[in-house]
Design goal:
By secondary structure, the protein is mainly beta. The chain is built from two helices and 20 strands. It is elongated and about 110 Å long.
Length: about 500
Amino acid sequence: MEYQLKKELCPTCEAVFEGTSEQPVDLDISLPDYCPDIERLLKCRICPTVSGKTISGDRLEVEGTALITLYYLDSKKKAVRYCEHNSPFSCSFKLRPELADPVAVVKLRTDYLNCRAVGPRRVDIHGAFTVCAVVYARTEQEFCSGIEGSDIQQKTHSEGYSRLCGTGQQIFSITETLDIGQGKGSPEGILRSGLTVRAESCKALTDKLMVNGEAVLHLLYVTDVETGAADTMTFHIPFTQVLDVQGVTSETVNELRLDVMNFDASLKSEYDENSTLVTLDARICATVIATEPSEMVVVDDAYSTDYELELTSKPCSFTELLSLSENSLVLKEEAALGENGITQMMDVWCESVSSVASYENDALTIRGKVLCAMLALDSEGTPFYAERALEFSYSPEISVHGGTVNARVQVTPLSVSFRITGDNTIELKAELRCAAAVFSTRSCKAVTAAQTSEERRRQKDSAAALTIYYADEGENLWGIARQYCTSVEALRLENELTEDVFTGRTMLLIPV
């Protein structure tokens, strides 16, 4: 016969897929007619962006564009010139079929890029970037929280976990017209643009999340095409966005991630030479995972006092959100930029950020690198390009009660600044925002089925009412009760016990 099990579902959010796809870049670029000849290459940058991502059936499709920008010195004016080339890309990832409420987080990482001038107007470019995709989805584990039957003795324990309430992903736009102002000169072309976004506050309503945040647009633009003179401008753009996320309430813990998918910053001066206006059109992807602290009772062992019981068990895991932390880091480092001296910094920016989380010696440590890029003028007024990597490390405070610890980390560069400290040295200063969702995963064994038959009734010795047993140090009541087919409660009452584990050799009276 089969016993009736009380079963409960444990909905959680799980990373059901992690994969990468390398995208090669092999180009032979000829300069447009309006670009002057190349005297010397300064830097070739690749900035891949995502234009769309869709999950359909068992496929994740990602489409985007890689913007390749070539910076060089012209052969006449010795000024910084640039040339741009857009290269579309697409890739596909195979997923597990029939995922529940999936959301995809896609990050793009430049691996390497080599460029070589093969003439005054031709450049050979070879490199690669990687599309990194992680898909999160709802998973439901079924657990036995109790077995019905007057003859059944069961051992249970409680497991804390983060119960998934809802996931959501929404793409929204930020469209602004911005004014550089007359005091900085009319822009004639954009050499470089960078956009970062961050959430400053979130307010949860039923099935909605109101996000207040800030987008920061940084521009390096040309003020005189003839001489190559340039200037910089930074815009701070506040925004408010309401996200629709089924399951979000004021009681849920809401993990929010904002990613810039793609953006376009263009000058109105392309149509009006006296204009100082800049238009920004950006698409931002917001990903929300909403959970709440919960507890699950799990049966990990059982036996029958009347029958030989057959148990079926399986390994299971519980993931608990320990903390959502946000830290601001300030990195400072002095850098030498060559032997020709520095007379002016044209611009400094964050080219890339990498990070990794590790849990060792009861501490979670997040380490990473910020690659700072610089355009400057040497002592002869000739532009040059340089890079320096700044390393960072910090450990958020967390309280862990067993299990394997891991974290989802997002590092956002807030600003990069400089101070010239010598003839050929500068002090770099980078401000970062590090957001980390820290989790603990614990594993255990859980009963999934219990059955027996009438022919497997236990043979009990009715000649004695009590059995004397000497328990050794370290033995527990459950093991002894299971061995003698009695209950833990009966042993407690008969021997007036309060502890489950014996600290020394002890005589027990076992009721039969």
